[in-house]
Write a structure and sequence with these properties.
Blueprint: H1 3-7, H2 9-30, H3 36-57, H4 66-90, H5 96-103, H6 106-117, H7 125-142, H8 152-182, H9 190-212, H10 221-249, H11 251-254, H12 257-273, H13 280-295, H14 298-302, E1 308-314, E2 317-323
Antiparallel strand pairs: 1-2
Helix pairs in contact: 2-5, 2-10, 2-12, 3-4, 3-9, 3-10, 4-8, 4-9, 5-8, 5-12, 6-8, 7-13, 9-10
């Protein structure tokens, strides 16, 4: 990447956090005129067209072989069709800001799936504490105690919708682990893989349309604009931004966008849709993020090490003294 291109990376990072954080608002608006299946079909179709145009414009070759397309189909279901449908269905019953908070649990579900499936992944003490803290955060966000204050029907529908959001992030975790396991050896770049899997996902959703997408349609400017932004920008252009950010900053720093999307989603939900913000949602979201950071070992590098006693020699005499971080660790 050129120096000029790197200069645009911070702006692309901010745009990515804004677009992905606002995606749940767009889902909620699109549901005013479309069914969940119709929203997902429109989103995937727009995304496939944008990434297909990128493939043609850059003269990339599409993958070849039955085996690789079989893997891409599995990933398309786990990474696109299933989670998009679950989030869209949940968007009918819970606030968009709450959906964005649950989306932030993706690193946690990915870790849990990795521990269950990949033999080289181990549950260390640090990871275990991270999982416990994040799980506590999920419980706080879900606030099961609030069911007592709601009607039996509406309370259970809300809880089911929140479980659907967790099911969607679990699908993401399965997709990431499956991709890591089965697509490592193929000579295709990230753009080719994304364009292929989103194209397959659009085709699979088109198959569902005659069975679950034939409900009445009310196309308004906000509804159409939301679907276009969700697909063309959120699923197409945003992916290109994400690839460039990873190239410039690395995967670790690029992944921090996950922690900004709930902030954007909740803020837009309150300001644009007039959604209510309850105390348990930001508190639970904070616990989830702290748990994820703990499980990834990042908090360990952020905390200062406690002073310790060491024996030093002064002109032949030994003395106990307290010292702080050694020069090697200063600034970390």
């Amino acid at each position: 990447m050129t120096a000029k291109g790197r200069g645009w990376v911070p702006a692309q990072f901010a745009a990515l956090a804004l677009v992905w954080g606002a995606s749940f608002l767009f889902i909620r608006v699109a549901l005013d005129g479309l069914s969940p299946v119709q929203v997902v079909f429109g989103r995937l179709t727009c995304g496939a067209l944008v990434l297909g145009a990128v493939m043609v414009g850059t003269r990339r070759r599409w993958p070849r072989g039955v085996e690789v397309w079989g893997h891409l189909t599995v990933i398309a279901v786990l990474l696109c069709v299933a989670p998009f449908l679950l989030f869209a269905w949940a968007g009918q019953h819970i606030d968009s800001g709450l959906s964005s908070i649950y989306n932030a649990t993706t690193p946690l579900t990915t870790l849990l799936v990795s521990l269950a499936v990949l033999p080289d992944e181990r549950l260390t003490r640090t990871r275990a504490w991270g999982v416990v803290i994040a799980a506590l955060g999920v419980v706080v966000v879900a606030s099961p105690w609030s069911l007592l204050a709601q009607d039996e029907g509406s309370g259970w529908v809300s809880l089911t919708a929140q479980v659907a959001c967790l099911g969607a992030t679990t699908c993401y975790g399965l997709a990431f682990v499956y991709s890591r396991r089965f697509l490592r050896g193929y000579p295709y770049d990230a753009t080719t893989i994304a364009a292929s899997q989103i194209g397959v996902a659009a085709l699979l959703t088109a198959v569902l349309m005659p069975f679950a997408g034939t409900t009445s349609v009310e196309l308004t400017v906000p509804v159409v604009a939301s679907v276009v932004v969700l697909g063309a920008v959120g699923t197409g252009i945003a992916y290109i931004w994400n690839t460039r950010i990873i190239q410039a900053w690395g995967a670790t720093l690029a992944s921090t966008v996950t922690y900004l999307t709930p902030l954007v989603g909740v803020t837009l939900g309150v300001l644009v849709l007039g959604e209510s913000l309850h105390w348990n949602e930001p508190v639970g979201a904070a616990l989830v993020i702290v748990g994820i950071l703990t499980s990834q070992g990042r908090l360990r590098h952020m905390t200062l090490r406690a002073p310790r006693l060491r024996r030093v020699v002064f002109y032949g005499r030994r003395s106990d003294t307290a010292d702080g971080p050694s020069p090697k660790h200063q600034g970390q």
